[in-house]
Amino acid sequence: MSSFVLRGAVFADDSVADVLVADGRIVEIGNNLQGDEVIDCTGLRLLPGFVDLHTHLREPGFEASETVLTGSQSAALGGYTAVHAMANTNPVADNAAVVEMVRNLGARAGYVEVFPIGAVTKGLEGAQMAELGLMNQSQAQVKVFSDDGKCVSDALVMKRALEYVKSFDGVIAQHAQEPKLTDGSQMNDSELSAVLGLKGWPAVAEESIIARDVLLAEHTGARLHICHLSTAGSVEVIRWAKSRGINVTAEVTPHHLMLTEQLVSEYNPLYKVNPPLRKQSDVLALREALIDGTIDIIATDHAPHAAELKDCEFSAAAFGMVGLETAAAVAQNVLIESGRSNWQRFAEVMSHNPARIGRDENQGEAIAVGAVANLTLIDAEAVRTIAAQTASKSSNNPYQGLQLKGKVVHTIYRGQFTVRNSELQKVVSA
Question: Which residues does the UniProt record annotate as the domain Dihydroorotase catalytic (predicted)?
Fold first, then answer.
């Protein structure tokens, strides 16, 4: 493999240097470096490749909405070098055969590293624990388990799952939603839901499960991760749990950091999502928690859907939004353009922390000599108008038509350009 130099890139700490990449690794950092090719990166922000702990790639079973290939391409365009694929496929990823298939599909695609997430319960039915140990011992080496899309609502099942994954340093990623409080719910429970005549989704449905599960995590000593926080109350529960030393981490999605329930006023199914968009006060609380470290990461919950599942009346539409190609711009808006944080925190929530939680080897590493060259370069000054659809097969993009600052210029996965000058590249797959 030929070598190349990233000339004059700006690091997260605002220092400027050249980076020499050869044989898939960073071999030198300095000034006036030489390689087979020199790429001008003046003014571009150099960051570790992004890692998404919460992606729906839909394959197997729902290829009309997304495939591992198209989802991987969308991820690369968004600056990602690794994604964790949720288990709610058909068949469900609740056994070694399915997770190994997803892992192999990711390797053949070659755009990002695809880490399969295993289901906590068989068939996502919430009753019988899935083959957690066998999935961990398989070639996929699964470390993260989730029934996302459904809550592990049975406390005994959740306790046993936490105890089981502790033995191999796994983590349970909980979709916090008490089903008895949300049956038939369509949007945030508020005055607006009453006006619109849509059944409300109360904040307590999320907060009560989180409160229960952090206590179970404390009891078992296991690692717990909470998916897609959406309320100010959830933030306070996580903050309390961390003050007690409970081994819990939490994520927030880009859409919960930027969008509010007011967008549902026109009954546009584009803005129907689980958990629902909340009030502006919740958005502000989530932003503050991301900045102060209560929330550990941004995770996209990229949820593509075929057109017929969204182009229908609101009550019949599927929940979910795509987000891989816009997450970095939203993160920049929240952390950098607000003046509230910095690029080092950006790297933590988009790269370092999700890789640490997922125990992802060679991902989210500091940019240093010897590290695998999983890198992203952003033009932080570029302003772009968001298209409805690019690499993803789905167009349920809640940001379409908006102008956002920040554009991924290059994505480098294992020393190979998957995106160059903001265009997808042909790659040599593993």
Answer: 46-231
**What residue segments make up the domains of the chain, in order of their start?**
49-358
Neighbours of 429 (CB within 10 A): 13
252 secondary structure, DSSP code? E
The pLDDT value given to residue 430: 56
Can you read off the two tokens belonging to residue 138?
A: 């398989």
Buried b (16+ CB within 10 A) or exposed e, 273-292: bbbbbbbeebbebbbebbbe
The answer to whether the CB of 244 falls within 8 A of the CB of 218 is yes
**Which residues of the chain register pLDDT less than 50?**
none
CA distance 404 to 383: 6
Catalytic-labelled residue, pool 282, 301, 360, 379 = 301
Residue 281 three-state SS: helix
Instruction: Tell me, yes or no, if 301 is annotated catalytic.
Output: yes
CB contact at 8 A, 162 and 172: yes
Whether 324 and 392 have beta carbons less than 8 Å apart is answered as yes
